[in-house]
Amino acid sequence: MDFIRSIMTPHPSSIQSSDNIQVAYDMIKRQKFRHLPVLDASGKLVGILSDRDLQRVMKREKVSLIEENYSFDSDEIVETVMSWPVKVISESTTIKTAARLMLQDKLSALVITDLNNKLMGIVTTDDFLRHIVHSEGSSDLPLLSTLPQLFT
Asked: What pLDDT score was predicted for residue 92?
């Protein structure tokens, strides 16, 4: 039986609930994440912040036909934007059970905590896809890098 600890990202980056959302946006953009666990001052998990949460409060300013600037209210903090309560699982949850929970609740990430609600890891749909690709071996057909030409 495969457990979630074998595919999760251990010790993921996180953010404090009192941090400014611009800091969170910059972190997500720089590190190319879509989810950040949110911790309180004592280090306990209190929520999760997704790129979708940020998009809901983002101000967009069109600079040109192909470029936009993004900004946020300067006094808005993560706590006011994050999703909560957050679904958590333990490291000993099976991969199948975690996948079933994500499908059932339409989640794109689950946070892994210990019994004291301390952050241990995160598992996302990307982790599941990586697991499937790696477990299938290299005998698959190569991925197409571009779509075939439909019109000539």
From this structure: 96
pTM for the model: 0.83
- We report the CATH number of the domain holding residue 100 as 3.10.580.10
Q: Is the pLDDT score of 152 beyond 50?
A: no
- 3-state helix vs strand vs coil in the chain, percent to 5: 30, 30, 40
Provide the residue range defining the domain that includes 116: 4-62+69-135
Q: At what angle do helices 125-135 and 95-105 cross, to 10 degrees?
A: 140
DSSP per-residue string spanning 54-122: HHHH-EEEE-SSS-EEEE--TT-BGGGTSB-SPPEE-TTSBHHHHHHHHHHHT-SEEEEE-TT-BEEEE
